[in-house]
Amino acid sequence: xxxxxxxxxxxxxxxxxxxxxxxxxxxxxxxxxxxxxxxxxxxxxxxxxxxxxxxxxxxxxxxxxxxxxxxxxxxxxxxxxxxxxxxxxxxxxxxxxxxxxxxxxxxxxxxxxxxxxxxxxxxxxxxxxxxxxxxxxxxxxxxxxxxxxxxxxxxxxxxxxxxxxxxxxxxxxxxxxxxxxxxxxxxxxxxxxxxxxxxxxxxxxxxxxxxxxxxxxxxxxxxxxxxxxxxxxxx
Length: 235
What we know:
The protein is α/β, with parallel strands linked by helices. The chain is 40% helix and 11% strand. The longest helix is centred in the middle third of the chain and has 18 residues, at 75-92.
């Protein structure tokens, strides 16, 4: 029997390659009549406020962002910018080549799988269209839970939906949002994905002092599932 009954993954930078805001975000700024650098600065400093979902839906949240940036676009412009931002975030998202094979291999072994992600409204909207979607048993999004990592509420929500104890779950993440520390505090085993491309990853509130296990690739998750070998009996 595998050591863990479920493996729970961070999304951005873990199931995906490194994320940076691409050129598509400029169109969103233009629609809002906002200098791109100003929009980026506001998005960066308000990430956790937006990722809790407490500012309302995507349109209400973007209106709040506009207030922070000191611009006042029309209702039509805001609606167009919401769609533009959705496209831009989706364009930034590139699954790792090994994401689908690893998730499929886990399910073939009878291990449950899931995502726990700090995110804004875009990810829950487009994740169902991604190739990993049919391979996930549970999806927990901060924007819907109303909390961000490392709050235990996100990890425990996944456990409840899987009907598992935290000790039955392995958590894999790149270390943003102090997610590894949070997973351990919630009672899970945590490992950090330290893939080479993550040197360029956009990350907030990283687990800088993490000293736990490191993985160079998602494929190494499979090596962690085999039972610990029992010691040989004395002759």
